[in-house]
Amino acid sequence: MRIIVGITGGIAAYKAPELVRLLKKAGHEVRCAATEHALEFVTRVTLETVSGAPLYSNLFASGRTEHISLKDWGEILVVAPATANIIGKVAGGIADDALSTLLLAFSQKPVIMAPAMNCEMWAHPAVQRNVALLKSWGIRMVGPEEGELACGVNGVGRMAEPEQIVDAVCQSESLKLKGERWLVTAGPTYERIDSVRFIGNYSSGKMGFALAEALAKQGADVELVTGPTYLNVSNCQHINVHRVESAREMYAAATEAFPRCQGAILSAAVADYRPAECADHKLKKQGDEGMTLQLVQNPDILATLGGMKRESQRLVGFALETDHELENAQGKLKRKNLDYIVMNSLRDKGAGFGTDTNKVTILAADGSRKESPLLSKKEVAEMIVQEVTS
Ligand code: PMT
Predict the structure, then answer these.
(1) Residue boundaries of the structural domains of the chain
(2) 356 lines ligand 1 (CB under 6 A)
(3) In CATH, what is the architecture of 181-388?
């Protein structure tokens, strides 16, 4: 891989040349970027010698947009050591020197940070808040470790050893779905009756959002097409959220994205029918009689993707059942040309709509079957991703 090692101004900067040496020994190409303060601890000559490439430390030195060309060159950026200052700058979107500018430009690529600082600085709520924010954007933290710190006290704040940082880089390289794009549908659809009413269902989007996060965790880029929900994704670096309202809008977004994807998991609870007509004003009550609403069928997104599916693509559907569960799910698996179907039954307590848990049976086209106990939706999502991508 082409790796950029970013170095900031902490005593642990003395370990950066060793990190560069180990990465090069593992067969990677390395370039270094350092802050002005880092160069108080480790010299330009050392970093240029071990990396075999010019050091990037001055935003204006070459008079070009070097942060952009370096961003285009690098496949991963490892900041070691990462001080409270650089963590705070990234959290606040500040780009006032070479490394912080490069870090902001690197927002679509993987970043690993190895924080190092005094233990009380590390424990400060501002630092903890910033670290949590960076993690929610998909930035990986390695360490810090507990041990003796430069100031002589013992505590959490030591930079992880270079070997540990190299392991983290290797892990991110071996992510199973790196370079793949997956489509996920989530949530309910709303089918308008008039300007204030709709036909909907109880789907919260939790299952679909957990699936998107589980795929992204394995390195995939995810197109998440969701119906109305209050949920947000935490890994916004790798999950592209398309918010839609109706089945027809979901159909348009999903059929547009699917040809660009290696696979799709459709967990949305899509309304099978919509009102034949939608009034552009609030319908008024008329007399004491009831009211008849005429419904027409919505397109079946899953069946359409089943028809479009290329040999190399994997297509996974869900089946929400209340009776004859396995038989019904099996029927959908065949009819819609799927590779897998994930059945959940409303007869299982804690499964289905709105809950934080689910219990599923994954049926494969080859006849094999895997059941889960009642687990969190996050765990169920990880199990599904593991099953359908192996
Ligand atoms: O969102 P949560 O609150 O976490 O709840 C999760 C869930 C219960 C919604 C989820 O686990 C689930 O079961 N999703 C599928 C619900 C459903 O509509 O099942 P179905 O058996 O009616 O549909 C079968 C499959 O066809 C599903 O993959 C569905 O997305 C798809 N479909 C259905 C109709 C349609 N017009 N287009 C579709 O793509």
Answers:
(1) 2-173, 181-388
(2) no
(3) 3-Layer(aba) Sandwich (3.40)
What tokens appear for 66 in the block?
């070097």
Taking only the tens place, the pLDDT of each residue in 18-40 is 999 999 999 999 999 999 999 99
- Single out the catalytic residue among 32, 151, 170, 236: 151
What per-residue string of b and e applies to 266-301 under the rule 16 or more CB within 10 Å gives b? bbbbbbeebbeeeeeeeeeeeeeeeeeeeeeebebb
Taking the whole predicted model, whether its pTM rises above 0.85 is answered as no
Distance (Å, whole) CA 148 – CA 163: 18
Chain mean position to CA 30: 26
The CATH code for residues 2-173 is 3.40.50.1950
Catalytic annotation on 32? Answer: no
Select from 259, 176, 254 the least CA-distant residue to 220: 176
Which amino acid is it at 178? Answer: K
How far does residue 265's CA lie from ligand 1's centre (Å)? 10
